[in-house]
TrEMBL record:
<feature type="binding site">
    <location>
        <position position="327"/>
    </location>
    <ligand>
        <name>S-adenosyl-L-methionine</name>
    </ligand>
</feature>
<keyword id="KW-0949">S-adenosyl-L-methionine</keyword>
<keyword id="KW-0808">Transferase</keyword>
<dbReference type="InterPro" id="IPR010280">
    <property type="entry name" value="U5_MeTrfase_fam"/>
</dbReference>
<dbReference type="Pfam" id="PF05958">
    <property type="entry name" value="tRNA_U5-meth_tr"/>
</dbReference>
<feature type="active site" description="Nucleophile">
    <location>
        <position position="420"/>
    </location>
</feature>
<feature type="domain" description="TRAM">
    <location>
        <begin position="2"/>
        <end position="60"/>
    </location>
</feature>
<feature type="active site">
    <location>
        <position position="420"/>
    </location>
</feature>
<dbReference type="Pfam" id="PF01938">
    <property type="entry name" value="TRAM"/>
</dbReference>
<feature type="binding site">
    <location>
        <position position="348"/>
    </location>
    <ligand>
        <name>S-adenosyl-L-methionine</name>
    </ligand>
</feature>
<comment type="similarity">
    <text>Belongs to the class I-like SAM-binding methyltransferase superfamily. RNA M5U methyltransferase family.</text>
</comment>
<dbReference type="GO" id="GO:0070041">
    <property type="term" value="F:rRNA (uridine-C5-)-methyltransferase activity"/>
</dbReference>
<protein>
    <submittedName>
        <fullName>23S rRNA (Uracil1939-C5)-methyltransferase</fullName>
        <ecNumber>2.1.1.190</ecNumber>
    </submittedName>
</protein>
<dbReference type="InterPro" id="IPR029063">
    <property type="entry name" value="SAM-dependent_MTases_sf"/>
</dbReference>
<dbReference type="InterPro" id="IPR012340">
    <property type="entry name" value="NA-bd_OB-fold"/>
</dbReference>
<keyword id="KW-0489">Methyltransferase</keyword>
<feature type="binding site">
    <location>
        <position position="298"/>
    </location>
    <ligand>
        <name>S-adenosyl-L-methionine</name>
    </ligand>
</feature>
């Protein structure tokens, strides 16, 4: 049987793919079905047709999988923020573990690696300590909002709907952030609207307000508001910040990141402090961390402790080793391991994160960690000694192949690879497989209701 583009077809979903889509088979031909899970029978429309596979969008669930639950969020099914809210949590964990295992076997071509059950999150809502909401001059309307004249269509502050780049779903409550964040978000929306300055058009590249980033510190229970704009306007920013600081005594500060770049990235070319502090103070275990707007910090604070405990367990340090931590962010892993190692060097590209890392060591009276700013492709050459243990925690794209080569040349006895992307983890493990045995992998769920999974691999030199 062949399918055609735009065809509407009933499908039995029997598998699940990377990226969280269901898989249905028609005489061996694969159809990836969005918003579906194994056990569903759906009516779907074919939206893409290729020689070896097709992609389909679910139009109607004819028979729901026994794993489906009623999602608590009104935007579920539309919002790109979390696509698995309708799937019971235990099953999410099972599929995530399977993704890691299959990535290692199929992409990495490495068999027999024990992939442990995922360490689950205790809190599956309100767990994110950072949310980035986009502004747009085009609002994506929910089906029940279509045709309504009382809804402005030229303004939105919220999240993307997958498959649309310029329209934004206006969100007044995101269940992934603590409830207080939603009240701040709605006040920010009101003040932005009242400013008279336009939201940024993702198509026109005109307009002022670009992103609203909210960072929450669990330890302080305080917030940092980062308003990303296309230009500087101190008066407009001061008015919004003045209102927010007055209305919410748990906002620690408001900063303004300014960027004229067209890329839809919520980072500024430079940052202007507007009111209060330019950071929040977070705690992980016994350690405190200053986190500023642009510094990387694990977005799930409670799970970050489980992640770093896994790193500690896998690093098997006895107190005297030299450790190198590639992609160190604000130095959280070196600080976490500081009492277990002789000396630790962290490498990181974002200068403000390196500055935070230094400050964080001072705050925690740690003296055996140092940090090097710069792109690891070049800065790795500044590591003169051969480390006993290497920790690697790259962004989603994984390691650059030059960095893999440098790591192999340095030949540490043990490595711990932390990854937020099973596909690039598998690729990088395979690039090192001749010299390093992958002893085990522990997935840690940092992102409930999304298909994303963090995984920690323990590597031993052969
Ligand atoms: C996944 S984060 C890990 C941060 C840290 N290990 C943690 O747990 O908080 C990846 C980090 O790599 C940094 N990074 C990305 N590309 C880099 C490069 N080419 N050179 C150095 N650091 C880089 C990012 O800025 C980010 O801080």
């Amino acid at each position: 049987m062949t399918v055609k583009k735009k065809q509407e077809i009933e499908l039995d979903v029997t598998g699940i793919a990377f990226g969280g889509r269901g898989i249905a088979k028609i005489d061996g031909y694969t159809v990836f079905v969005d918003q579906s899970v194994p056990g569903d029978r759906v009516l779907a429309r074919i939206v893409k047709k290729k020689k070896s596979y097709a992609e389909a969008r679910t139009l109607q669930i004819i028979e729901p999988s026994a794993d489906r639950i009623e999602p608590p969020c009104r935007y579920a099914g539309w919002c790109g923020g979390c696509k698995w809210q309708f799937l019971q949590y235990g099953r999410q964990l099972e599929y995530k573990r399977r993704h890691v295992r299959e990535a290692v076997e199929h992409i990495g071509q490495i068999s027999g690696v024990p992939v442990h059950p995922v360490l689950p999150a205790d809190k599956i809502f309100g767990y994110r300590n950072k949310m980035e909401f986009s502004c747009s001059d085009r609002r994506w309307l929910l089906p029940e909002e279509l045709g309504r004249t009382d809804i402005p269509k030229d303004f939105a502050l919220g999240l993307h709907v997958p498959g649309t780049f310029d329209k934004i779903l206006d969100i007044d409550a995101c269940l992934l952030q603590p409830e207080k964040g939603n009240r701040i978000l709605n006040d920010v929306r009101d003040r932005i609207r009242a400013s008279g300055l336009a939201p940024y058009g993702l198509r026109t590249h005109e307009g002022f307000w670009r992103f609203v980033m909210l960072r929450h510190s669990v330890a302080e229970d305080r917030w940092l508001v980062n308003l990303v704009t296309a230009a500087e306007d101190r008066g407009a920013l001061a008015a919004v910040a003045g209102y927010l600081m007055e209305a919410h005594d748990d906002i620690a500060g408001v900063v303004n990141n300014v960027t004229a770049k067209k890329a839809a990235v919520a980072a500024g070319e430079y940052e202007v402090p507007v009111s209060g502090r330019a950071f929040v103070q977070e705690q992980l275990g016994e350690f405190v961390f200053e986190v500023s707007a642009n510094s990387f910090f694990q977005t799930n604070t409670a799970q970050a402790e489980k992640l770093y405990d896994t790193v500690r367990r896998y690093a098997q340090l006895s107190g005297s080793e030299s450790v190198v931590d590639l992609y160190t962010g604000t130095g959280t892993i070196p600080i976490w391991l500081s009492a277990d190692a002789g000396r630790i060097t962290g490498l990181e590209i974002v200068e403000s994160a390196v500055a935070d890392a230094g400050k964080n060591c001072e705050k925690n009276q740690i003296t055996n960690c140092r940090f090097v700013a710069g792109d690891i492709r070049q800065s790795i050459s500044q590591i003169e000694h051969r480390p006993d243990v290497m920790i690697i925690d790259p962004p989603r794209a994984g390691m650059h192949k030059d960095v893999v080569k440098s790591v192999l040349d340095m030949a540490p006895e043990k490595m711990v690879y932390v990854s937020c992307n099973p596909a690039t983890l598998a690729r990088d493990l395979s690039l090192m497989a001749e010299t390093y045995h992958v002893a085990e992998i522990q997935p840690v769920d940092m992102f409930p209701h999304t298909f994303h999974i963090e995984a920690v691999a323990r590597l031993v030199r052969k």
